[in-house]
Design a protein that fits this description.
Alpha-Beta Plaits, four-stranded antiparallel β-sheet, 70% helix, rod-shaped, 301 residues
Length: 301
């Protein structure tokens, strides 16, 4: 056991020594690994941030039907019965002008805002909820039918955009999976190429070690440690890059969201995301190192 620990400690020291002797090339390798890992990490955090906001949006397609100010009670009742009998609608809710005024005063937080008006300027309205499987064509046809109805001033289709946004997030998730696969292959190739260059520069040393009886495990160990250190440090640097980009972009993103009356900010990676990033980058680097070392060790036999 002590002998095994001693061999691993020697390999670890040799790895550190190699990094110290070539700091520039080691730093360049770390930057390449970090940038490759930062892309999917940042894209994942962007999707997670957007998905958190979209989860609060209504996904059922809704239509707001605003009535004319001259509409009569009979016309309202007739339209209500017609809407309740429509099989395309899952819910019908009538909002009178007085109720709408109260909701508006509550939302702005001031009861004196409309005190100077002699009449209520808000119209009566219906809020219609369509079935979730309703097609955009059927919703547009319903919108045209209601616009032509007696007493109707305007019909606005509200929540269809939320469903489109959800579909866009689904596309983003698929794109994230493709990026993860491509960058995983890139990390394996990058690490394998770095290990291959190290093996070529130490070829004479490896040949002498094989002649005096060094095992494959002894020769492989420093390269494995180097790949593991590159993976861990590259993952940490990737998290730092994403954190810096988030800190730089967040004020502009929050200001843009506020201009649309929304609250949105880019999410910060928690410790679990950081751990997963470190584990994945380390495993990919180890895979690249194992492939490169195994291929070259077979040439020394």
């Amino acid at each position: 056991m002590k002998h095994w620990i001693r061999l691993n400690w020697i390999a670890f020291q040799r790895t550190l020594g190699g990094i110290v002797r070539a700091p520039l090339s080691s730093l360049l390798n770390l930057l390449v690994i970090a940038i490759a890992a930062a892309f999917p990490l940042g894209f994942y955090l962007l999707i997670a941030s957007a998905q958190g906001v979209i989860g609060k949006l209504p996904v059922e397609p809704q239509l707001s039907v605003y009535l004319r100010t001259s509409v009569t009670a009979d016309e309202i009742n007739t339209l209500k019965q017609h809407l309740q009998a429509d099989t395309r609608l899952a819910g019908v809710r009538f909002i009178g002008k007085d109720e709408a005024l109260k909701q508006m005063q509550a939302s702005v937080g001031s009861g004196d805002l409309l005190a100077g008006l002699t009449d209520n300027p808000l119209p009566d309205a219906f809020v219609l909820t369509a079935h979730t499987d309703a097609s955009p064509e059927s919703l547009e046809a319903l919108q045209k039918e209601l616009t032509a109805s007696s007493g109707v001033d305007q019909v606005q289709l509200d929540s269809a955009w939320a469903r489109r946004l959800q579909q866009l997030i689904a596309v983003g998730k698929g794109l994230l999976q493709i990026i993860l696969v491509l960058l995983a292959v890139a990390l394996v190739l990058i690490t394998g190429n770095a290990i291959r260059l190290q093996i070529l520069t130490r070829r004479d040393e490896i040949e002498v070690a094989k002649l005096i009886g060094a095992t494959d495990a002894f020769i492989r160990r420093p390269f494995v440690y180097f790949a593991a250190m590159q993976g861990v440090l590259g993952g940490l640097l990737a998290c730092a890059i994403v954190w810096g980009a988030r800190t730089w972009l967040n004020p502009a993103v929050e200001a843009l969201a506020r201009s649309y009356g929304q609250q949105f900010s880019l999410a910060l990676a928690d410790w679990r995301v950081v751990v997963v990033t470190l584990v994945v980058t380390t495993l990919l680097c180890l895979l690249g190192a194992s492939l490169a070392v195994g291929r070259h060790l077979r040439q020394f036999r």
